[in-house]
Specification:
Radius of gyration: 24 Å
Distance between the termini: 78 Å
Strand content: 15-25%
Number of helices: 2
Order of helices and strands: HHEEEEE
Shape: elongated
Oligomer: single chain
Structural class: alpha+beta
Length: about 160
């Protein structure tokens, strides 16, 4: 009686699966690292956008900086105004003083001058949502300098990025 040799044996299939698992074990950590790097670059870019938008808002409306992060967001009216300036997208503007984008949470903290009622100082923190979305914490204020910390929430005393 002749045996048919169509198909693969169990040993051959197990070897193929083992090879695929080895390749995946090598590739997946690199993929995660590249995703973290992309999220961190996006967070820095978003902070730069927020700094530029705050300067534009302040010079356009002559009210100081925004009292809420969401005021930088898009307007439903055809004409932007001081509570919907249309300077950033709705994702980055968020709700109130908080937003989330690309694995980072952004927290906006304005300081109002008691004499004039204008916002004269602001701080923005960008914190990773988890260690799988980012490893650096970022901070910026009206000076435009973006600072980072690798272990805890960044502040004005941390080192600037790139220097």
């Amino acid at each position: 009686m002749k045996r048919s040799s169509k198909g693969f044996s169990l040993i051959e299939l197990l070897i193929v699966v083992a090879i695929i698992l080895i390749i995946a074990a090598i590739a997946i950590p690199n993929l995660l690292r590249s995703r973290i790097a992309a999220n961190q670059a996006s967070a820095v870019g978003s902070l730069r956008t927020l700094n530029t938008s705050e300067i534009t808002y302040s010079s356009t409306y002559n009210l100081g900086y925004t009292s809420m992060l969401s005021y930088l967001g898009p307007s439903t009216d055809p004409t932007p105004n001081s509570t919907a300036a249309g300077l950033v997208d709705s994702v980055l503007a968020g709700v109130g003083n908080n937003s989330s984008k690309s694995g980072y949470n952004f927290v906006y903290a304005p300081t109002t001058d008691t004499n004039t009622g204008k916002v004269v100082h602001y701080e923005v923190n960008a914190n990773p949502q988890s260690t799988s979305t980012g490893t650096n914490y970022y901070y910026t204020d009206e000076t435009g300098v973006i600072r980072q910390n690798t272990t805890a929430q960044a502040s004005s005393s941390d080192s600037p990025i790139g220097g």
